[in-house]
Write a structure and sequence with these properties.
The structure is a single chain. The chain is of the alpha/beta class. It folds into 4 domains: about 55 residues, Molybdopterin biosynthesis moea protein, domain 2, CATH 3.90.105; about 90 residues, Molybdopterin biosynthesis moeA protein, domain 3 (Beta Complex); about 150 residues, Molybdenum Cofactor Biosythetic Enzyme, Chain A (3-Layer(aba) Sandwich), CATH 3.40.980.10; about 80 residues, MoeA, C-terminal, domain IV (Beta-clip, Beta Barrel). Helix content is about 20%, strand content about 30%. It has 8 helices and 26 strands. The strands form 7 sheets. It has a 6-stranded mixed beta sheet, with no helix packed on it. Strands 16-13-17-21-20-18 form a 6-stranded mixed beta sheet, sandwiched between helices. Strands 22-24-23-25-26 form a 5-stranded mixed β-barrel. Helix 2 packs parallel to helix 7 and helix 5 packs across helix 6. The longest helix has 19 residues. The structure holds ligand LQZAQKY5 and molybdate ion (MOO). Ligand LQZAQKY5 binds next to helix 7.
Length: about 425
Amino acid sequence: MSLQEIATRLAGYDAEDLHLDLARDFIAQALPAPDASQAERLPLRSVLGRVLAEDLISGIDVPAHDNSAMDGYAFRGAEMQPGLTTTLRIAGLSLAGELPAAELPAGHCQRIMTGAVMPPCLDTVVPQELAQHLGEHSIQIPADLLKAGANRRKAGEDLAQGQVALAAGRLLKAPDIGLIASLGQIETLVFPRLRVALLSTGNELCAPGQPLQSGQIYDSNRYTLTALLQRLGCIEVIDLGLVQDEPQALRQAFAEGTARADVLITTGGVSAGDADHTRQVMAVMGDVLFWKLAMRPGRPAAIGQMRRADGSSALLFGLPGNPVAVMVTFYALVREALLRMAGARPEPLPLLRAASVKAIRKKPGRTEYQRGIVSRAADGGWQVETTGDQGSGILSSMSRANGLIVLNHGQGGLAAGAAVDVLPFDALM
Ligand SMILES: Nc1nc2c(c(=O)[nH]1)N[C@H]1C(S)=C(S)[C@@H](COP(=O)(O)OP(=O)(O)OC[C@H]3O[C@@H](n4cnc5c(N)ncnc54)[C@H](O)[C@@H]3O)O[C@H]1N2
Ligand code: MOO
């Protein structure tokens, strides 16, 4: 869906009070498909956080052979009789990594170590601590101790040859990288990193490291956003720095971002203040929709496409300037969109259910994210308390919080002790 189509469909809604779910849906439909033609084959050690660009089919059975899950003795399960002990003579020793033992006569077992290939005629393993040793050469297995087939790991039980081990769109995590290695591969095909250009706007901003002049504050948003983007793993961050709220400087920075990146993220200048040139420059250089979202924090936002000379475009997210609003809008609008553009099929983030320590006030009709501190309650469950003042300029409260309390659009306030959803930062930041 093009931005013009979104604008048309928006005609039925109030862009000054847009339901967050609707905004997310519109954004999802405006996303360009990832560019699979640019996929690159990279060594396994450098693909953490990257997005798999093809279904990964297992070329082998993992494990490749039936093998023992225990140090013990392998034998034929059929030789056990209900109610009777089983006496077996030890024929030999199988160590992990060795060829399987040859045929064993009836009444015999094979001493076997964890991971060693099961001799083909044997199907059951008694752990050594459960076997009774009769001198050096025989063991006894107590009656009714094991089922036939116990403690044998079957060939292909982890992954069968021909099976899809990991589907395209997978955001590669540590276990996935181990899984690819378990198939014997040292490289894997991943989508290119999504290029995201960042800039902060505002005449009051001073770059960290410089002395602060009167009336100035330090630019923190670019650093927060850089970290949030780095955390996603599949993003190349292009830092366009700090841009004065002055049309010529903004035009130049937007043009550079549009040329160099797939996505441009700006902070500040999206509400309608006297110095908010950002908004006007965006509108001149692209197709941009300005929304006021029915959410708090993070009410004003600009979503759009910035045109390139060749007719293509870069996606634009104009986030509000308040530091907490930046993080909340990044989570609510940007994160999933970037992952999808990068080729991923992200899973919904897990929410925790926690008892609210205090009553929380809220009116139905907007989504609210409050900064929360989650801890263990006396009853062993989770409890959550807000960090106090929820002003969206209070960045330190984000550092003190360990999660966002999610208050859904339709819900009202909460009584103390009521259960509420919390998005843990560990899943997010
Ligand atoms: N009359 C109205 N005023 C405001 C409204 C409104 O609806 N009507 N909305 C308020 C809300 S909510 C927000 S959020 C801000 C968003 O405004 P802008 O996106 O134009 O942001 P700025 O005015 O440029 O900055 C807001 C605030 O954040 C500080 N800031 C900006 N950039 C950074 C940065 N890179 N690092 C740290 N802090 C930054 C800036 O100094 C301001 O204090 O508008 C409200 N006003
Ligand atoms: O986006 Mo503003 O910070 O909601 O407060």
